[in-house]
Design a protein that fits this description.
By secondary structure, this protein is mostly beta strands. The chain has one helix and 19 strands. It has a single domain, classed as Beta Barrel (Porin). The N and C termini lie far apart (86 Å).
C-alpha cells in the first residue's frame, strides 16, 4: 500500500513538474494563435479566422514501460470582429486537447473583447469563460496492490469552470499584450485528497513588430513570456516574410537554459492569401536523455471577410458629370 501511494504521488508530482509551467499547452507557432493566450486579441485581425493546429512533442519518444508516445496537442480557434453601432468588439472560441501519458486536459473557451480605437492604434480589453476537463486513465497504471483504493479504475473525468482576462495594444508597426489565465485556480482530486492537482493561475506576455527590409521583404520579430508566478519561460522568434506570401524563421525557447531551437516555415495561398499553412520543427537542446530529440507542429488557417453590420440608409441621389445613381 505504501509503495502504491508513493507511485501515484510521484506520478502526480511528475505531471505537476512537467506541466506546472506548461499547464497551458506549449505551441511553437504562438504568434499566429494569440487568442489561445489572450482573450483581448479576439477580432483584432478584422476578419473571420479559423485555425487548426496539431503538435507532436518528442516524436518517437519511447517510455520505459508499455507502449506509448510523447505528449500530443490539438488546438482549434475561431474569432471575428463585431461592430455594434459606433463601437468595435470581437468574439472568439477555442478548443484545446492536450494528452500527457495517462492524463488528458481539454478546455472549451469563449472569449469577448472590447476594442477602443485611437489615432496611434487600438486598445483591446478581453474576458474569457469556459470549461476545463481533466481525465485520468487509471487502467494504464501498473499497481503493486490491485485492491488499492487510490486506483479507481477506468477513465475518470472532472469538469471545472475556467476564467481569463487580458489586455492588448495593437499599432501599425508593433503589438504587445498580456493575459491572465485560470483565475479560478480549480482543483482536481477525484474525491481523493492526496491526488489534488491545482490548475495554477498563469500569465503571459506576447509582443512583436514588423519592419520593412525592402519592398518585398518584411522582418517580424516576436517574443512570448510565460509564468505561473513560480517558474518562468520565454521564447524569442524572428520570421522573414517574402512578397507577403512565404516566410521562414527561427525561435529559441528558454527556461533555465536554452531548451529548444525551433525552425518555422509557412506560406499564404489563394489569390487573396486567405489560406495559411505553417510548420514548426523543434530540436531539443537540453534534457535529451529524458526526451526524444524532435517535436513537430502543423497549422492550417483560413480567413473570410467579416460580415458587415447592416444600417438603414436614407434614400440619396448622387449626381456626377456622367452618371446618376439612386
Amino acid at each position: 500500500m505504501i509503495q502504491q501511494r508513493l507511485l501515484i504521488f510521484l506520478m502526480f508530482s511528475f505531471w505537476t513538474l512537467v506541466t506546472h509551467a506548461q499547464q497551458d499547452t506549449q505551441f511553437s507557432q504562438y504568434v499566429f494563435n494569440p487568442l489561445f493566450y489572450n482573450p483581448a486579441t479576439a477580432g483584432l485581425t478584422g476578419n473571420m479566422r479559423f485555425a487548426i493546429l496539431h503538435r507532436t512533442q518528442w516524436l518517437s519518444y519511447a517510455p520505459t514501460l508499455d507502449d506509448g508516445s510523447g505528449p500530443t496537442s490539438q488546438l482549434f480557434t475561431f474569432d471575428m470582429p463585431l461592430k455594434i453601432g459606433g463601437t468595435h468588439h470581437g468574439i472568439g472560441f477555442h478548443v484545446v486537447r492536450d494528452k500527457i501519458i495517462t492524463l488528458t486536459n481539454t478546455e472549451v473557451q469563449l472569449s469577448y473583447a472590447y476594442h477602443q480605437r485611437f489615432q496611434a492604434g487600438t486598445l483591446s480589453l478581453g474576458i474569457r469563460g469556459g470549461i476545463y476537463n481533466q481525465a485520468i486513465n487509471f487502467d494504464l497504471f501498473r499497481p503493486v496492490d490491485e485492491d488499492d483504493p487510490l486506483l479507481q479504475g477506468g477513465n475518470q473525468n472532472q469538469f471545472k469552470s475556467d476564467f481569463a482576462v487580458g489586455i492588448h495594444w495593437q499599432a501599425p508597426r508593433y503589438f504587445i499584450g498580456t493575459g491572465f489565465n485560470h483565475l479560478g485556480e480549480s482543483s482536481f482530486s477525484y474525491d481523493i485528497e492526496s491526488l489534488q492537482n491545482t490548475l495554477s493561475t498563469h500569465f503571459n506576455v506576447i509582443g512583436g513588430g514588423n519592419f520593412n527590409i525592402s519592398s518585398n521583404i518584411l522582418m517580424n520579430p516576436s517574443f512570448l513570456v510565460k509564468s505561473d508566478f513560480n517558474t518562468l519561460s520565454y521564447e524569442g522568434t524572428v520570421l522573414t516574410t517574402f512578397s507577403e506570401k512565404y516566410y521562414g524563421g527561427i525561435s529559441l525557447r528558454n527556461s533555465n537554459t536554452v531548451d529548444d531551437v525551433v525552425f518555422m516555415l509557412g506560406t499564404f495561398l489563394l489569390k487573396d492569401k486567405s489560406l495559411h499553412i505553417g510548420y514548426a520543427f523543434d530540436y531539443v537542446l537540453s534534457g535529451q536523455t529524458a526526451k526524444a530529440s524532435t517535436s513537430h507542429e502543423v497549422m492550417l488557417a483560413y480567413r473570410l471577410n467579416a460580415p458587415k453590420s447592416r444600417r438603414q440608409r436614407p434614400n440619396l441621389i448622387i449626381r456626377t458629370p456622367r452618371f446618376r445613381h439612386e
